[in-house]
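R.M. (postdoc): so does anyone remember the format we settled on? I'll just put the structure tokens first.
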């Protein structure tokens, strides 16, 4: 496969702005951890920048491991990590740790546009042959799925709800911008808001 064919292999027909609302119609049921930039804007638009969202900034590669920590600390809660392909590749070894720890209610959604959108839209590894689904399976994930077309979205809700956890869904999306949403950009305030909301929910349980 030559370089042009590898880049074309990442092409998809999914609008990222429609992805998360379809995957999480009842987003209040989840605790969310989102990665850098576009992933966090998409997640903030989904949740209304709600207290059940821990949106990261400036810590590339941390979303998966932080989501794992949340899932292990709250094993009875549904936890979803929303990340991008570039960020996940920055800490790809975290998938081995997640698979080994095996929190049953953890889902990872990788919004894969094959680009490094924050630094000039350079082609990323997944645009040139890297296969996150195969890597996840090799790491020990029993549930891993890749979608490329909006017609495939119908199967994703069942995958997120009923497949053996932890699970990872790779959504190949068009190289368009993320949702335009101004989220809270104060990391300590985001952390405290998430913690307080979580503790309040725990007291009600």
């Amino acid at each position: 496969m030559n370089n042009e064919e590898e880049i074309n292999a990442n092409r998809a027909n999914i609008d990222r702005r429609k992805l998360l609302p379809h995957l999480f119609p009842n987003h209040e049921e989840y605790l969310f951890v989102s990665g850098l930039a576009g992933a966090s804007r998409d997640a903030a638009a989904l949740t209304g920048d709600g207290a059940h969202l821990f949106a990261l900034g400036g810590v590339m590669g941390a979303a998966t491991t932080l989501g794992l920590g949340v899932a292990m600390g709250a094993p009875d809660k549904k936890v979803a990590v929303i990340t991008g392909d570039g960020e996940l590749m920055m800490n790809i070894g975290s998938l081995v740790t997640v698979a080994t720890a095996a929190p049953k209610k953890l889902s990872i959604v990788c919004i894969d546009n094959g680009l490094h959108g924050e630094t000039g839209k350079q082609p990323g590894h997944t645009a040139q042959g890297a296969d996150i689904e195969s890597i996840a399976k090799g790491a020990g994930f029993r549930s891993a799925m890749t979608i490329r077309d909006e017609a495939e979205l119908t199967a994703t809700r069942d995958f997120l709800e009923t497949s053996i956890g932890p699970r990872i869904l790779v959504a190949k999306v068009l190289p368009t911008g993320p949702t335009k949403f101004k989220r809270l950009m104060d990391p300590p305030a985001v952390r405290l808001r998430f913690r307080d909301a979580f503790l309040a929910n725990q007291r009600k349980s």
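R.M.: ...and that's the designed sequence above, right after the tokens. Also worth knowing: The domain at 3-50+62-114+123-204 is CATH 3.40.50.970 (Rossmann fold). The chain has one domain: 3-50+62-114+123-204.
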